[in-house]
Structure formats: C-alpha cells, structure tokens
Specification:
single chain; 172 residues; mainly alpha; 2 domains; three-stranded antiparallel β-sheet
Length: 172
C-alpha cells in the first residue's frame, strides 16, 4: 500500500522531517516523490527501533579492562569490610532473622490472652488489668529490640574472603 508523507508520519508517530531523515538512512522506503511503501516502511522502522534499543558493546583497551577490574575489586573489598564490621548485611540473612523475630513476636502476642487471663480474672481495677496487659505486650515487643549484629555475620572468615579474592585475581 502506498501512502503520502503525512500518513506515514502519522502511522509511525514521528514528524515528516524524521520520515525524510529515515529515507536518507534507508529505513523508510520511498517508491517515488512524495509516495512511500507503507508495509516496508513500517517493517524498516520497527527494525530500526529494535536495533536502536539494543545496547552497543563498547570496545575497551586492555588498560581500561584492568582499571575497571581494579575498581570492582576495590568495591568488593569495601563491601567485605563493611560486612565484617557488621555495617552491611546480606538480604537473605536479614530476611531470615526478621522472619524469625516476627514469628516469635506474633506467637508471644497471640499467647498474651491465654497467659494473662488467669492473672486478671479476679481483678476489678481496670488500671491494674491494663498494667498487666501492657507489661506482657512490652515484653513481646522487646524481642524485636534485641538486635544482635552477630546474628547476621556469616561463618566465612576474613582469611576465607581474602583467599577467595586471591583465587579470583589469579584467573586474570
């Protein structure tokens, strides 16, 4: 099907000027002056956009590769040190610890009625009842506050980390 420049530009969602540029780049097919092949032009434009979207590999010199590698090693070392100092934790460790803590708190909170009901059964004073319940809720919530960085530390020692890093270096 043949169309004029306005129709083609509208179909592709681009300006007429861009259509002219794409003709020069052999992306859009012009059959004759002011007339374009719609089917082949749309296919060419789609291929053009796909090609544009693909990330282009950039050529790097050996020196650039070595420099980038050194930056990566430096960043890895920084992260390892932060992990050993308990300033950085692995996501799976955090999830494991928090899941355990949340489960323990949930269990404790759900057990409060069973635990305090015999204690407050005979109490008439609302303030005393509130005090007993508040104490139990506070005890349950304090379990969350008991953060211990050692819980997050993996068993991998500093020597193991350095040994692993040296093995990686030898590969290059």
């Amino acid at each position: 099907m043949e169309v004029n420049i306005q129709t083609l530009a509208s179909c592709l969602g681009i300006s007429q000027r861009m259509v002219r540029q794409l003709v020069e780049d052999d992306v859009v097919v012009r059959t004759r002056r002011g007339v374009y092949d719609l089917e082949h032009s749309v296919q060419g434009y789609i291929n053009f956009k796909i090609t544009q979207a693909k990330p282009k590999k950039k050529e790097m010199t050996l020196e650039q590769v070595k420099t980038e590698h050194e930056f990566i090693k430096m960043r890895k070392t920084e992260l390892t040190v932060k992990t050993l100092e308990s300033k950085l934790h692995k996501a799976e460790d955090v999830e494991r610890i928090w899941t355990g803590m949340a489960s323990a708190v949930k269990t404790r909170l759900l057990a409060i009625p069973v635990k305090v009901s015999p204690e407050i059964a005979g109490i008439e004073d609302k303030a005393q009842i509130q005090k007993v319940i508040s104490r139990e809720v506070a005890d349950a919530l304090n379990e969350i506050a008991e953060y211990n960085p050692a819980d997050f530390v993996e068993s991998l020692s500093l020597e193991d980390e350095l040994e692993e890093e040296n093995e990686t270096e030898e590969e290059y």
